């Protein structure tokens, strides 16, 4: 202990919580440009909250500097100014307001001896803290044990900052935009299309057009995979799937489930039903079709059995 008192931070005296909460709630309805649209991740922190709380942690309360703000009135006036900065920073549409963030960065510099502290988040997750630390001018460090989080943070934070201002390098059009990370974005779009086309050439035949009940065609974008076993009934040893549930969607108004239909020859076809009266358990399944669910010990999967 040195006996030297630590300056009180703005977060220790008060912040404009109502505005921050309102903007954090509104952020959930925004879609354009938000990092949450890059990739879904668990428990993403609202950027409005992250940005303003970081600022309040890095900036001293005016009462900590009586040499600059000698009277209570001067301290209150400066505190109001800082709160107004936070309220403006909380608004997502102000993210590109250069003057606003110059003022915020200057406030951080004034509270930290002319330098902005590095910010470390050892469990960065969706990257909200390092991203907003960068926005405030800090050198951000983020890490995570989850490889998905690492990829998100590299794509969101590391690569744009490393290649900011660089031209694109792909051999396509002659557009070479140096503005911010446009060159990197152009490269990602170019090579993303290239990879998509090559992938489609290899596996596109596995995703054919299918018709719905109204006869309209749709492109298959994914398959639901299930392990299969041979039906133990020796009279009909066909492959049958092991599934946890026949439901595809239980969202109200958009219910969908798979109905296995056993033909007279012992084969099984699968129909997609759009109704809320899908199978609710093994007994319900018995009543609806010629199959029954069987639990094998602790195994939560169900086995389709056909008996003639």
TrEMBL record:
<dbReference type="InterPro" id="IPR029063">
    <property type="entry name" value="SAM-dependent_MTases_sf"/>
</dbReference>
<protein>
    <recommendedName>
        <fullName>DUF1156 domain-containing protein</fullName>
    </recommendedName>
</protein>
<dbReference type="InterPro" id="IPR009537">
    <property type="entry name" value="DUF1156"/>
</dbReference>
<feature type="domain" description="DUF1156">
    <location>
        <begin position="15"/>
        <end position="84"/>
    </location>
</feature>
<dbReference type="Pfam" id="PF06634">
    <property type="entry name" value="DUF1156"/>
</dbReference>
<feature type="region of interest" description="Disordered">
    <location>
        <begin position="272"/>
        <end position="292"/>
    </location>
</feature>
